[in-house]
Amino acid sequence: MKTYQHWIDGAYVDPSDGQWLDTTDPYRGEVWAKIPRGSSEDAALAVKAAKRTMADGPWATMTATERGKVLRRIGDAISKNATRLAEIETRDNGKLYSEMLGQLRTIPEYWYYYGGLADKTEGSVMPIDRPNMVAYTTHEPIGVVVALTAWNSPLQFIALKCAPALAAGCAVVIKPSEFASASSLEFAALTKEAGLPNGVLNVVTGFGQEIGAALVEHPDVAKISFTGADSTGLKIYETAARTMKRVSLELGGKSPNIVFDDAELDAAAVGVVSGIFGAAGQMCIAGSRLLVQNSIKEEFTERLVSLAREVKLGDPMSSETSVGPIATHPQYEKVLRYIDVARSEGARCVMGGQPATGPGLIGGQFVEPTIFADVTNDMRIAQEEVFGPILSIIGFDDEEEAVRLGNDVIYGLVAGVWTNDIGRAIRMTKSLKVGTVWVNTYRAYSFLMPFGGTKQSGLGRENGQEALYEYLETKSVFLSAAAKAPPNPFIQRWL
Ligand code: NAD
Fold first, then answer.
1. Sorting pLDDT into bands at 50, 70 and 90, what band is 495?
2. Active-site residue (options: 89, 178, 186, 250)
3. Catalytic residue flag (residue 250)
4. Which one is predicted more confidently, 323 or 362?
5. Which of 248, 300, 412, 479 could cysteine-pair with 454, CB 3.0–4.6 Å?
């Protein structure tokens, strides 16, 4: 069994009060490693190291172009270690090895992209109307950034947050999920090999309400970048407000996948099934509400059920498996509770609806892909995020009703629209109050494209050039060449 340590100031160190937590393989139900149970003392050490690197040392004086090169070398290091890191992630969170390997092969692109952007944060010179003055803006790193991440895609979340933060010149302290910390700790050492100075990237582990909360409260932290549940995000937002920290929040969703009767129904069915049963539904972008036009509702439901029956639950390391276990025991219990909720509300279960058992399903954390018909949008199963393989089917008559139902949740992360009518597609993309709309596709994602939520799905954007500015403050400079004192010191000279 492997025992991990925190990564602080360029070295592995034991937790200050000598406590560790078990980390479990959700497929086998076995403890496979120990991670430090960090305390506020460990949080303080990591923040201190990060703060120091922003004040002096090589990171503070490195040119943006040099920073960019370091980021690109980090991308190379991830690429070289992709299979090893993917295996660790699958072991820790039970997601398919093929999916984690796919992610690990793409993650270097984030580091290359932000490496390339590091020296392109250009300011502006304003045409100020004074002969002896120049007015311009610059962009400066915001300060020490704390990255708090969820368990479903650990190294992807680090790339989303840390690649732009480091490109901006910030230093970071990462606190990964206590359910899946191992890959983040392994990754940390690769950054040193890639030439990142000590203290610029630190990884500490433990419970959110212990070391996570200590990081959010720390006065020397300038920004919190969080991915996780909306209830946690709200707590973090409130705490961060007390010291005016900047926050980015990537939270949950109850996303509509909207199928019109003029759509290519084969493609739509694949989009709906992969949008809710991929990763056992443990995706913020899960298309958990299928809004389907009433004229095709019965036929489309049959199509979905027959497609979803092809699922192969099993060992996430096997290439035969299409859906793995639920990643954590509390999450598994939550999914089963929501199945009961849906039944008690009067939803009709047309597929699944119970724990999945069988010879290959060891560890006891599998749930059958589940489809509920006769759902109305006011039911809890249509309003609350489950984060599991449960699809709710809701009928609609026309475009107007589809928009109303689509928007009638507290969330606004993503939406799918399936139609062959281009006019309808354009109207729908404009009317849906979400951060991303997919037309005739679902789960398309790229480091080039801003991603984030509206409403209670969060604040701020990750990916693309916008993400870089989440880690920069704009400074305005008025530079006067006039040595002469103004004629009247008590009167402000407005332009
Ligand atoms: P979570 O909120 O329980 O935990 C996320 C992180 O926050 C963990 O590192 C945890 O230790 C930490 N944390 C918990 N309480 C804290 C506190 N009081 N102070 C500081 N840190 C604290 O979320 P989870 O169960 O790991 O992830 C599932 C959730 O994440 C789902 O709601 C899902 O929708 C969301 N998610 C969102 C996105 C997105 O990009 N929008 C992506 C993936 C997951």
1. very low
2. 250
3. yes
4. 323
5. 412
